[in-house]
Amino acid sequence: MQKKLSDIIGDPITFLEDLFSKLDDIDLDVEDYELDHICYRVDSIEQYKSKKEDLMPLGELLVESMVNGRLISTFKLHEPIVFRQRRIFLIELPGPKNGHSYKNGLEHAEFVTISPLQKIVERYPQYSFEIFGIHKNINADITLKLGEYCIRFHNQSLEDVIKLEKKMYRK
Q1: Can you tell me the distance from the alpha carbon of 134 to that of 132, in angstroms, rounded to the nearest whole number?
Q2: How far apart are CA 113 and CA 157, in angstroms?
Q3: Which of 2, 4, 108, 145 is packed most tightly, with the most Cβ within 10 A?
């Protein structure tokens, strides 16, 4: 019998409710931003392989690539996660990074905005955004930690970035 998504990664709705509650607590409005994808972290390469295998029947593996010394898989679900009129099709599954400790579970959500990332940082000066990724040529980002979770903002969807990278590496 095929596993359900919640059997594999836990309940994504509960995760998103918790995350959005934290956003409400700090008055950070993300209503105008597309919720592009959610990320499930693993603590070992064995867990990575197991979760990747479990997710295969639920969606299309768009890419598995080596990023910063670890494998990252991105899946496009056949059936989206539906949360507050949002439809989330993508799940990111990064392998563990050497020298870093992660616990298994849903960890972050990523939003796409047409606003320049610097404008978001300026709009919310009271928050300590991590901006080390703001000047990347492809898929620039800013990150805000919210306890055990975090959110990221990008100007491109992960699916568009994957398509762009596949096109670049075909040449």
Answers
A1: 6
A2: 9
A3: 108
Cα four-point dihedral sign 38, 40, 45, 49: negative
- Beta-carbon contacts of 96 under 8 Å, excluding residues fewer than 6 positions away, are 41, 42, 43, 44, 45, 47, 48, 70, 102
Mean pLDDT score across all residues of the chain: 91
- pTM of full prediction above 0.70: yes
d(CA 153, CA 147): 17
| Structural domain total, the chain | 1
- Domain span at 91: 5-170
Note whether 43 and 117 are within 8 A (CB): no
Cα three-residue angle 41-68-146, rounded to 5 degrees: 40
In CATH, what number is assigned to the domain containing residue 18?
3.10.180.10
The pLDDT score that the predictor gives to residue 154 is: 95
Q: Which residues pair with 74 in a beta bridge?
A: 63, 92
